[in-house]
Amino acid sequence: MTNAKNALKKNTQNKPANTKQDTVRDLLMSMKGEIQNALPSYLPVDKFVRTALTAISSNPKLANCTQQSLLAAIMNSAQLGLEFNTPLGESYLIPYGNTVNFQVGYQGLLKLAYNTGQFKRITAREVRENEDFTINYGTGEISHKPCLTGDSGEVIGYYAIYQTKDGGQDVFYMSKKDAETYGKKFSKSYHSGPWKTNFDSMAKKSCLIQVLKYAPKAIESQGLTQAMTFDNASFKDSVKGSDGDREFKVDYEVVAEDVPDNVDPKTREIIEDKKDSKQDDFFGDDFVPVEE
Question: What is the pTM of this model?
Fold first, then answer.
């Protein structure tokens, strides 16, 4: 009996403790039914959950955020029908201290706009220094002719344009310097997120957000409004409302004295935590990441 007790004690001591990633996996699996109800019909729940787990395994700092924050950000992405942290560039979940910062991507915003069924055309482009480009805010028209020979030059600005099916249209232009200023002002993760890795795409997305402010209110959809409302917001928590829908608690701005300990107050860049640099075996032997 004594030997049996010692063996049981030894096995218990040798059993690895659940990692934070294991806990997140269990949480997502327990919420699978609600996630499925939130997702649009074209996005299978198993694919969305596996993509979420892959994103967290690729950036373990997400698992260090509070469960309430991470779950709220994931549920927001599910309601929008946008996959996050994938090469598609639809949306991004970025760890910011112990909360998760949400950023809609250029492709995600285009997707939500086209899903309204009200746009004949909506797009955004870079403008290069040797291209022939003019814009007229008075008429809402642009002329953008590419450089057919030679070097097009460096990117100097960005613009977005929409045309509705009933003939309405508008444009918005932003210089590259203005885009940098916009990103630094409105994105907490400017130095460590998609603004750093894919600046042009985020600048075009910012132009789209601005031009859509002038679009007729009749074409607004819940998804498009929700994406633009929560863009650059840090999720704190979410609760089920009386109608069963989730209501989100978010922070839009962080003043210098409220910057988390693991974020540089000047650059807003995430400070690497050496003790978290060694990755655990995130989800066990049965986990297979999404292939790009």
Answer: 0.75
